[in-house]
User: What shape does this take?
Amino acid sequence: MDNDDVIHTLNKLIDTCKDGEYGFRTSAEHVKSEHLRSVLLERAESCRHGAVELQAAVVQRGGKPDKHSGAPGTLHRGWVSLKGMLTGDKDQAALNECERGEDAALARYRDALKQDLPSDIAEIVHRQYEGVKRNHDQIRSLRDARRATT
Assistant: This one.
């Protein structure tokens, strides 16, 4: 895998992190539960840190980190905003949408891990993938618990 391909892969993951940060923050604005708001803001901050780490890796490899996310992320952000305004149970809707976003993030990280990345980059991507899995599992657990009480 050449350096340009590595940078391209990292930039796709940066977009994924930025989309996750935006999705979690936007969802946090719409929920009623203070506990859920706190969890979503923590997840947003985790995504922000992930993007910063990946941006540093791009710069270290002589590349330019993407500043904006791509079309899929734009669509996801629009859906998060629209869904938050239209649904009756905003907490459940936010959890459903956050889990959907984390499903997409897991797929992007899995795709990246299938590539022949340099070992230092593969280590970062694998560690962040584990964090995305934890985010996903936590959101799914909260969603299921919320669903069980309604």
Observations:
- The chain has one domain: 3-149.
- The helical segments are 3-30, 34-60, 71-86, 90-113, 119-149.
- The CA atoms of residues 49 and 108 lie 17 Å apart.
